[in-house]
Amino acid sequence: MVSLKKDGIILRKTTLDFEIEGVLNPAVIQDNGKIHLLYRALAKNNFSSIGYCILSDYKTIETRLSNPVIIPEFEYEKHGVEDPRIVKIDHLFYLTYTSYDGINALGTLAVSEDLISWQKLGIIVPKIPYKKFKLLAESQGEIGEKYRRFNKLPPTHKKDKEVFLWDKNVIFFPRRINGKLYFLHRIRPDIQIAGMENIEDMNPDFWKNYFLHFKEHIVLSPLYEHEVSYIGGGCPPIETEYGWLLIYHGVHDTIEGYVYSACAALLDLDAPEKEISRLPYPLFKPEEEWEQKGEVNNVCFPTGAIVEEDTLYIYYGAADKRIAVASLSISELLKVLLQYTS
């Protein structure tokens, strides 16, 4: 087992309208000697925006804005902007989040040079109905039964509205790999990967070809008991000498509902679609009261991480209500992971 310390809650909700119900699932990046958190802020009726604060060290708030930095502005995000992740590539910050219109939840991209002013580039995953997805993806043989179970109709289905495949947890790798941009995304139950020369390349023909070869783009599938229901990307991949360290979330169903745990895997540095290893047990799971009770019970949802010398700090949403951090030795984690190479 990997030794891990839960350092506790670092951010709670306030009485401000935009975050009166909770704060959770932060994008985290270190830049110019500061740690920046862009977090999902929950208003009444489950409307989300993205708040912003700066830490002076890994868990001490230095500055916290009293207004969100990203709010719903367009029809495709009218019910909220959710669960941001962030990387910096070639002097540009890439912030991905899930835009929710009340029916469809789809991965979206905004870019910035200063972390304050953001240019929204819109939805970057495909708008594809389940029937078309199934037709294309099964050109190479049947896809798993869970794809039908999770995606045939979303829980908010309305017959008079267009309904697309939910495609969430879009997370860029923090640099180009062999000249290409890569991102992870999640169509339940698996984690998939997409690679392209430029963002503009992701046109309808790109996605049609992608789905015709869909199985080739699946990076990780549920394997162990703690992730048996489905998995999804967590923190942006961290480059190490042994591979890309991926902290993701695994979900399993219980009589009390789903339990979300933080998990760890290694992907190949030059071919990130290849899994090298993964832990056969959770890196950490809901055990504290503040992880077990909240807006959604039993949730540890990792979305951001930083490395300082040998320490990996993992930031996560706790029970969809508050933000916490856990720390561990990255060298110890890598040593343990390498015992489970595939």
TrEMBL record:
Keyword Glycosyltransferase listed: yes
Q: Using the record, list the residue span of the signal peptide; answer none if the entry has no such feature.
A: none
Q: Which Gene Ontology molecular-function terms are recorded?
A: glycosyltransferase activity
UniProt keywords (A-Z) are: Glycosyltransferase, Transferase
Quote the Pfam families the UniProt record gives: Glyco_hydro_130
Entry EC number(s): 2.4.1.319
InterPro entries, A to Z: Glyco_hydro_beta-prop_sf, Mannoside_phosphorylase
Q: Which family does it belong to?
A: Belongs to the glycosyl hydrolase 130 family.
Name of this chain's protein: Beta-1,4-mannooligosaccharide phosphorylase
